[in-house]
Structures are given as structure tokens and as C-alpha cells.
């Protein structure tokens, strides 16, 4: 092993290592610059070092109890292990561990630990704390429970939100004498609250002042979130408090909490207090603060011995909610639970005598039921809820469930513990947001921000296109459940199409409870604090992404029943909608689609034309042509019975089918003389933008739309994009498919590689990555033109976007599930290069230099594969005989036999 040894003090990092060339021991000092933030100091420090280390050893840890990589630096305790691992991507161990286990074993245990834990050391407040809570959210597809401190109540530093998938409510607020209607995923009663008091004094409220030390650790292997605190209260009393939480992955109505207090320098009387608090509102998003946020009405509170129940309902959607709580203890001999009932809160407490040095534990299991998924009496449901006997049972249960989950979602990255950790985290949150066994009981899909916060109000967007591919690889039945959410709202989509004078089905840009349009009409610009009109609803391409998800699901599963009963009907309705959106030009013989927006949300229409939308958005037209081709495919591959039945249900005629053939060859696209594909008609007339000027003025220019609007200017006037738009089609479709569609449309591209290179260069230089969905798409596009460095840079930024909250506060309002899904997809489909989008699996790896190998498993057409992909070899074991395509050649694989493919 090649270790780097560090002794970290407030002012210096003393470091030593053996020079690889001379074997001489190098010993040096790095002076911490007091004016620079710690991270910048560490980046500078790293730049002074060679790159051949595989472990870092901290020689002077100060706080071995929390973790033996804690040191004092710039006069504050920090876990330097976390900083170093995030920078060097190698394990960082403390000297005590090394002394105990030897360097090799300590490093290997830490590498394993780091890949499975999301840890935070120290007290945070404000948006940072909010975002860490989002990142440590637990859940099981049914509910999401933000990882707030259990002692906290909603305020500017903490937001203990709880959400159940599908529980929405609408409220109307009058702003500037306009009625603004908003439908929100409702923040449910807070039952994770627990705190303590000593000798009948005030309940403990968490703040930085009384906290000596705090470590929060999410163990993704087991689903257990642990917070360990050392407190020094104002009255001099010292305690250690450990709280643990775990969501039930099997009985999805339940989560469990454990709270342990240990008096360190006193004896006396203590109380632990818990609540189910119905006085909650939706207040996670600062921008929404002027809107009515009282979604819940509490009906009553009940109690019986050590159980308590709170019943509530949503104000307008009238969804009934019951939250139950049961207290227990493994070491308090007599649990005399005292209950205080108010109308909208039920508090339970236990009082006990404590002796200095001993630990006392209260366990609380919470059950949540709603009338959405539970028929019958909710009180009965809560009363008959089968609680785990002990918290340890709940943890065991969770551990077993997560073991199954991880053996299904197996993904191992060799050589980079940061990527390993964050990919596990993305998979963890994908699973928290939806689970096969749970979603089959629910009528929901995945929101853009998971079940983790209130931004975008829990709505479902085209972001499904970025996350469903991950579910397809591991839980195709889950994808089916999520597609059924769309099918169940086909009626609403038809109504919506009708309301704009169109036919077929137009799915809403933002979908919530019923499938009606939930996009806002006005959007608050946080720079000016003014409400600007919001036309994002014109992103009709959401229907294309639904069609895309249907096709992908079908292509990966061959689920004919789904196509017969639901899929084809949706596709035909979507097709009918797009037919009705086209206009035919007699002179040119071409079709146009107008009044839409592409994925680039900076362009809502043409300069000086109000509410116009755009004409011939390239992404929309290409994907429309693609969907029409798929409909043609089904029209020749399905039996006449199935076709007749589906045509009838969708009111789709033979004439319509004829039209799809004509339209899909004649939709208009525009190119300039350099073969750049215009984002929409007239794009090249827009003004270029002086990015450097704005960068100098504003620093971060990712939300260029807001900046321009604040300056009284209009982003519609400029060639500036929030995210990939024209080139999105190249992300979604296989390259040959993309060029077939272009050729179907009458645009032959002679030099395809040159076309892709030029277009990526052109649009990348005009894109500010104002959406987290931007970089990951460009990362994959960069791989196409063998710009591996750029691909890696963009991928790394996308991978860390929530971890570092790179949009400066948006993670606080919920994770970005789309980019999480897309990074997983880029790893398997493009880095490992196992492309599932064709009739056969196609293998063409591009393993990043920073990684030694990618190991993972996946399903394709009912066959399970286990892959190991290195820089020069693909090893694959299928569980069935199957043919794959390796770098263009067909290869036969035999069931349960490993095949090695060298490249
Ligand atoms: C992006 C959209 C995305 C939405 C929800 C926006 O910022 O521009 O593409 O669908 O966020 O994630």
C-alpha cells in the first residue's frame, strides 16, 4: 500500500509519504490559509501532491468516540476523513484503527464503510441542514421521512417533513387579486418528534450552543439513520444522546425510532417526550411562503395505554389520514406513559430516574394509513397494525429487506469510493421513492423531487424518462405500476387535449392527483421577488416521454399483455394528439408543430410574440416521428383483434395510421449552413450572449433566465439554453435510431461523427446547466465523440449535484431524482456500455480512467445478467442462453457460464 500520513492542526497539515521513484521519505508542511474556506485549502493541498496514494492515515485524531478521523482545523473540529475521501477518493483511516487492525485491513474496512454511508459531522443550520435532511431521508415508496433531527420542529434550520405518495391537496390563494391554485404533496403530521427534559425543566431544543459534538450516519446497507450527540447543557449537565430511525421496507405503513439518553455527570429524574403533531403546514419552500399552506385538518386524537392516534384529513381532496404511535422500552422497567391530548396534537411522555453513566432507551413505532390505499376504518387499521416487538427487530427486518434490494440492485465501482458512495446513494433514493412491492398497491408515479421535499409540489414530470430506465433494469413490474399511473389518467389527458382544441391525449407537464395540469401560471423569480408568467406547460413533449417509457418497458420485457390492455391505447392516443398538433404546408409538402416548448425552459416563445410557444422544436419533432414509427410497428406486429380493440378504444382510424406514415417522413427541421440542427424555427436569428460579461457580473449564471428577466431583458431573445434540447433526442435514442429518424425525415447526414461533434460543441457553449438534468445528458453525449475527459467532468458534477447542493439551496427542497436516475443509467448503459434499448443487448464500454471496473447486474427480456466491465474486458454471466451484440458482432452466451469478451 502507498499511504499518505497527515498530522492536522489548526494552522498546518504536516504530511509525509515515501517517494515512489526515490523511496526517500518526503516530509512537508502545508500552511492553512485562514482566509480561505476549508475545502479550498484542501483542494490546494491536494494539488501539491502526487497521485499514487491508496490510503490516507490521520496521525492525530482528537475524538475517537465519534470517528477516529476527527481533528481540529482552523479552530473547529472536523471529520477530515470525509473531506479527504471526497477529494482523493481513497479511504482515510485514523491511527488507532491502523494500530488495531493493521493498515491493509483498516483501509479495506473503511473503503467498504465509505461506499455505504452518507455521514455528516458537526452541527449545520439553514439551507445546509435542510439539504442534509433531504439527503438522509428514509422511506419505502409509500412514505418519505426527512432525515431531520428528531428533536426538531419546522423552523428556518430544520424541516421534519413526512410525505405519503399520492396524498395531494389543492388550495387557492389570492395574489394581486388573481386566484392562484396550487396542488401540493401534503406534509403529514410529524410523528418523528422526540426530545427529553431533566428534573421537570424545559424540553431540550436543539441548537448549536449546547452541542459539543454530533455525528449523523446513514447506513445505506441497512437503511438505518443514526445521530449521536454529546451535549453540554447551560446548567452544566452533560449527556450523550443517540437517536436511530428506520423505515419498514416490508410493512410499508411503518417506521421505528429509538432514543437513548445517557447522563454523563448527573443522576436524577428525566423525561422523554414524543408527539404526533398535526399542527404542521407545507413550509419547506421559501418561495411558496405567500401561498396558503394549511392542507390538513385534524379530526381527533385518541390514546390507550402506550399507544396514541391522530386522525386528520386533507382540506379539499378529503383524504383521511391516521397516524399511530406505540411506545416501548428495552430497559425502562415500568413504562408509565403519560398522554396529553390536544385537538391537533397528541403528546406522550415517560418519566424515569437516571443514574450517572447508565443508558435509558425509549422506542417508538409509528404507523401511517391513508384512505387512498386502505379501505375501511383507519382507526382499526392503526389499532391492528402489527408492530415490531423491538427496535432491534425493526432493524433486522430492514437489514434483510435491504440485503435483497442490494443483491438485486448490485453495483460496484472499483477504484473510486466517492463514486461508489454516491451511486449507492442515488440507488438508495430511487428505492426510497418507489418500490415494486409497495407501488403495486398505489396509484402514483415518482415525483421530480422524490418523497424528499416540497419543491415542484411533489409533481410528476417528464423526469420519469430519466428514472424509469433504472427501474426497468431491476424491477420491471415497478415500471409497469408507474406507467399505470399515467394510464389511469388517460381520461384527464384526453380532456386536456380537447380543452386546447386537440385530439387524443395530452398529458400535463406537471401531474399530481388527478392528471390535470398542475403547472403554475405564475412563477416567483427569487432575484426580483416578482411573479413572472410561467409557460412551461407548453412542454408537450412530456407525452413523448411517456410513449418512450412505454416502448422501453415493452422492449425490455416483451410484456404483450401490457401493450394489449394499456400501452397501445396510450400510444395511439398520444399519436392522435400529435397528429392534431401538426399543420401541413401545401407549398413545401412539410408538416410543422407549433406552440410548444422543448426541454430548454429558457425559451418559452418568440421574442415580442406573447404566449406563442415555439415552432418545430427539434426534440419534439424527432421524438414525434419516432413514436409514429413505433405505432406503425405495432400496427404490423399485433393481431388484428388487438388492433381493432385498441383502435376502437383510442378512436384511432386507418386514416390516422396513414397520416402517421406521411407525417413521420415530413416533419420540418431547420439546419444552418454548418449543419447545426436548430433548436426550433428561427433559432439562428436569436442574438448570441456574452457569457463572460454576465459571469463577471453575477458569478453563477446557471439561471440566466432569471438574470435576464431581472434586468428587464428576455431570455427568448438569446441563444442560451438551460439544458440539452435538440440533442436530447441523441440521449434518448440509440445513435443509429436517431440517424434513421433523421433520414426518415429526409435529412441525410453524410458524416455522422462530425455532425454530432459540431452540434455538441455548438450547444454546449450555449448551455448554462440551469437544470440538474443538463450535465448528465451532455456527459453521455461527450462519450459519443470520445471526449472522455469532458464526459467524466460533467458526470462527476452531475453525480455530486445533490451531495454538494450545487444549485445553492435546491436540495433543501428535495433531491433531484431525475439526475440520480440518469447517473445510474449513464454508468450502466454508457460507461459499462450495456445498451438495453435495441432488440438485443449491445455492449460497447467506455470505463472512466478513474475506475478500475464496474460490476453490476440487470434484467433484459427476462434474463438476468451479471457483468464485470474493466478497461479491456467484459465478463458476463447470464442466467439463460441469449445472444448479445459485442462491439457490433453477435455473440452467443450460455446460461450460467461466464463469457469473457476482450476489447
Ligand atoms: C427542468 C425540467 C424538469 C423539472 C423538474 C426543471 O428545472 O428544466 O426539465 O422536468 O425541473 O425536475
UniProtKB/TrEMBL annotation:
<dbReference type="InterPro" id="IPR008928">
    <property type="entry name" value="6-hairpin_glycosidase_sf"/>
</dbReference>
<feature type="domain" description="Glycoside hydrolase family 65 central catalytic">
    <location>
        <begin position="428"/>
        <end position="824"/>
    </location>
</feature>
<protein>
    <submittedName>
        <fullName>Glycosyl hydrolase</fullName>
    </submittedName>
</protein>
<dbReference type="Pfam" id="PF03636">
    <property type="entry name" value="Glyco_hydro_65N"/>
</dbReference>
<feature type="domain" description="Glycoside hydrolase family 65 C-terminal">
    <location>
        <begin position="837"/>
        <end position="892"/>
    </location>
</feature>
<dbReference type="InterPro" id="IPR005195">
    <property type="entry name" value="Glyco_hydro_65_M"/>
</dbReference>
<keyword id="KW-0378">Hydrolase</keyword>
<dbReference type="GO" id="GO:0005975">
    <property type="term" value="P:carbohydrate metabolic process"/>
</dbReference>
<dbReference type="InterPro" id="IPR012341">
    <property type="entry name" value="6hp_glycosidase-like_sf"/>
</dbReference>
<dbReference type="GO" id="GO:0030246">
    <property type="term" value="F:carbohydrate binding"/>
</dbReference>
<dbReference type="InterPro" id="IPR005196">
    <property type="entry name" value="Glyco_hydro_65_N"/>
</dbReference>
<dbReference type="Pfam" id="PF03633">
    <property type="entry name" value="Glyco_hydro_65C"/>
</dbReference>
<feature type="domain" description="Glycoside hydrolase family 65 N-terminal">
    <location>
        <begin position="127"/>
        <end position="371"/>
    </location>
</feature>
<dbReference type="Pfam" id="PF03632">
    <property type="entry name" value="Glyco_hydro_65m"/>
</dbReference>
<dbReference type="InterPro" id="IPR037018">
    <property type="entry name" value="GH65_N"/>
</dbReference>
<dbReference type="InterPro" id="IPR011013">
    <property type="entry name" value="Gal_mutarotase_sf_dom"/>
</dbReference>
<dbReference type="InterPro" id="IPR005194">
    <property type="entry name" value="Glyco_hydro_65_C"/>
</dbReference>
<dbReference type="GO" id="GO:0004553">
    <property type="term" value="F:hydrolase activity, hydrolyzing O-glycosyl compounds"/>
</dbReference>
<dbReference type="GO" id="GO:0016757">
    <property type="term" value="F:glycosyltransferase activity"/>
</dbReference>
